[in-house]
Every structure is written in C-alpha cells, then in structure tokens.
Design a protein that fits this description.
This protein is of the alpha+beta class. Helix content is about 35%, strand content about 10%. It has 2 domains: about 30-65; about 70-240, no CATH class.
Length: about 260
Amino acid sequence: MNLQLIRKNDREENVNDNTNDSSSPFDQKTSRRSFLKGAAVATGGALATAAGGGIIPRTVRAADAPRPVQRYLFAERRNCTGCRSCEYACSVRQSGLVRPSIARIHIYRHKRIVDIPVICWHCEDTPCIAACPTNPKSLSVNPATNGMIHTAATCRGSSCLKCRDACPAGYVRVHPDSGHPLMCDLCDGEPECVKACLRQSGNPQGPCLMANAGGFGVNRAYRNVTPLQAGEDLLSMLFYPGTGERVATKGGDEP
C-alpha cells in the first residue's frame, strides 16, 4: 500500500516537471527523484575526474625531486651549543661506532666557555694536497662530491703530517690508531653532521652547521680564522661585549 502511494506521488511530480514552462532553470521545481538522479550523476563525474587526474592536482613527493650534491660545509659558530651530535653522527658514518675521536668534524671548547665547530672548508686551492710529499699524492678531491679522498696505502702518517701543518683553518686531526690524517669526504654529498645538527638545533638560534652546493667564497674567508681566534672573538662578542679585552680564564681543550 505504501509503495503504491509513493509511486503515484512520483508520477504526479514528473508530470508537473514536464508541464513547467518557466524560462529560467532556477524557477523550475525539483522533484525528489530528479534531485537524487542529479546527485548521482554529479558524484560519478567527480569520481571520474579525480581518477583521470583532472582538477585534483598531483601531489609531488619530496623524494621525486633530485637532491643536489652538497659540496661545501658552513658553520655559524655563534649557534654552536656544544652538543657534539655532529661528532657522533660523523663517527658512526665513518666507522659504524660512536667514537668522537675519529670524527671528521670536532668541537673545540675554548677556555671552557664557548664551543667552536672545526670543519674542513674544502678550499679550492687545496693547500693540504699541495703540501703532501708523496708521489702519487695521498690526498685528492673527489670531483663528483668535492669531498677529500685519503689514500692510506701511500700516506706516511704521523711521520709526516705536512697536510696538517699546511691547513690554514687548523682543521686536520690525526687518527688515534693509524696516525693518518682525518679528512672529510662530505659523506658523498649528504653530510651526516649537518643532518644531526639540524635535528638538535632549537629556536631561535637555528642550526650551527649547514651545507650547500656552492661555496660562494665564504670558505676562503672563514678558513683563515683559526679555532683559537674564533673562540676569542665569540668571548668578546657574546659573553664580554664591549670590553675589547682577552679573557684569561684557565683551561681549555686543544683546538
């Protein structure tokens, strides 16, 4: 009984729709059945458009974009908090162990007050390679990444270390076991120290270590500022501003 009544009402509504002479579509009456049909058509069209990639834009994942090779390191020394996460990440990358003494980056604590990141500036004129006495050279540059390549088979190790003496930044350290110089290979273009520093950095100071595909000449300007000089500058600028004095506090790590 109820089903017959619903069908009768639908037929009456369809007759009214067909006899409507209004010139404007907004003046026409819409039956319940017409509304449901229109909604079904609209929904089907939207699904078809989405499936075909029409209106809805394609989401580009970060992994789809090529990552440029990071060929240079930079250090905003005033942002360093001395957390040493860069040393841990570097040593794990190089040896699989958390051993800061063999990291290719190290933190120098100046007079037990300020922390200075000591990095390889990857100089274009490579004074460390020029000073190497072996033939062929025990040091070279990877042209694809700009990282340093150390050849242990020809290196004279602790009996030479002319590369360390020639480094204007005072960067080169010696491996405690082999006596060979520790050189930065930039982790094949994705420096782990930079990633670790970014994860540990806070607001508002931001990370201390950064990497870029270009050097912009900054490496040549900063390399002549030794860790000792940088420590003194930060002491006078951040902790004792305006005094212009060298603070003689006791103790400090070796740069």
